[in-house]
Amino acid sequence: MTTPEDMTPREAWHRYLDGRRTEITEETASTYHYRLKLFVEWCEENDIETVSELNGWVLDQYESARSGEGIAATTLHNEMETIEKFVEYLERIEAVDDGLADRVNIPDVPTDQKSRETKLETDRALELIRYYRSSEQAGSRNHALLEVAWHTGARLGGLRALDLRDFDASEQTLEFVHRPETDTQLKNKHNGERIVGIRDGVAETLQRYIGSDRWDKHDDHGRQPLFSSLQGRPSTNTIRGWMYTATFPCVHGSCPHGHDPDDCEFRSHTHASKCPSSRAPHHVRTGSITWHQDRSVPREVTAERVNASQDVIDQFYDKATKRERMELRRRPHLEKLEIE
């Protein structure tokens, strides 16, 4: 019988991920898989045959090797954080010495680098939405997807998980439900479940989309996706591609990059992400959260709507500049400080 310390790094890697799949989403599992794959392959290249050979020096060598490849500081930070969790698992099953996880160095990342992120700017988002609402594209799939993403701040997985039944037109709400048994997990599982209220314009857009542009399809589990494709429920990559095309600047104006929309290669679904001005669902979420904050929506309300803690919002999602914070959030309160 193989003892824990005799496992190869590859065996331990697969065993660790297999044990965690019930508690993390497929997207998170995929991320862990890739990060640990790099570590395992490095171990094999350096003749580390069993996990019992792992020690502080080996972990330090790996960190130095990855750092020497010129990867971003945030990438190295995240990779070493994942390795720390992996080593904690190895400690728990008594495959390595106690305390080894404490020797995993997780490099600090400056706050500005942690939070540096592209977003869909508020002016652009509102310009796009106003255009969609008044154009022939009103009620199109791209229009509806952008409206929902912008007004709810939902993650890509949340958008994909929505069913037709999750939209209540009379109450003007969207309900996000964790349904892992039928292939739509929410990032925070049952803690990610919530009902989000939407404004008249968003509800009207969804009703128009459902009545005209939505494919009347069921997925492999008999459910009716709100955002459906010809095949049923779209993949995350498909939804990501839809959002890129929904946020093209040439949707409602001239190209800011000097391209002719009629022959621009970015206009194809496969190259949409290469357009410098197109935005992914995560960028829309980031812009949406910033917009919520700029509109003085209470932080706790925003946190509930977008399913993220206030600390995470402040650190990773709220992308307002110092000038924007002053003009949009603090200046309106100046009259409260008037003495006379």
What would you note in describing this structure?
This protein is mainly alpha-helical and 340 residues long. It is 48% helix and 3% strand. The protein folds into two domains: 4-114, DNA polymerase, domain 1, CATH 1.10.150.130; 122-289, hpI Integrase, Chain A, CATH 1.10.443. The chain has a three-stranded antiparallel sheet with strand order 1-2-3. α6 (122-134) packs antiparallel against α7 (141-152) and α7 packs across α11. The longest helix has 20 residues, at 26-45. The protein is globular.
Quick synopsis:
This protein is an all-alpha fold and 340 residues long. It has 2 domains: 4-114, DNA polymerase, domain 1 (Orthogonal Bundle), CATH 1.10.150; 122-289, Orthogonal Bundle (hpI Integrase, Chain A), CATH 1.10.443.
Adjacency order of strands in the biggest sheet: 1-2-3
C-alpha Rg (nearest Å): 23 Å
The CATH architecture of the largest domain can be named as: Orthogonal Bundle
Ends apart, CA distance between termini: 83 Å
Q: What is the count of DSSP helices, taking H or I runs of 4+ residues?
A: 14
Low-confidence stretches: none
Examine the coordinates and then state which fold CATH places here, giving the name of the CATH topology of the largest domain: hpI Integrase, Chain A
Number of domains: 2
**Number of extended strands:** 3
Q: Determine the strand fraction and express it as a percent band.
A: under 5%
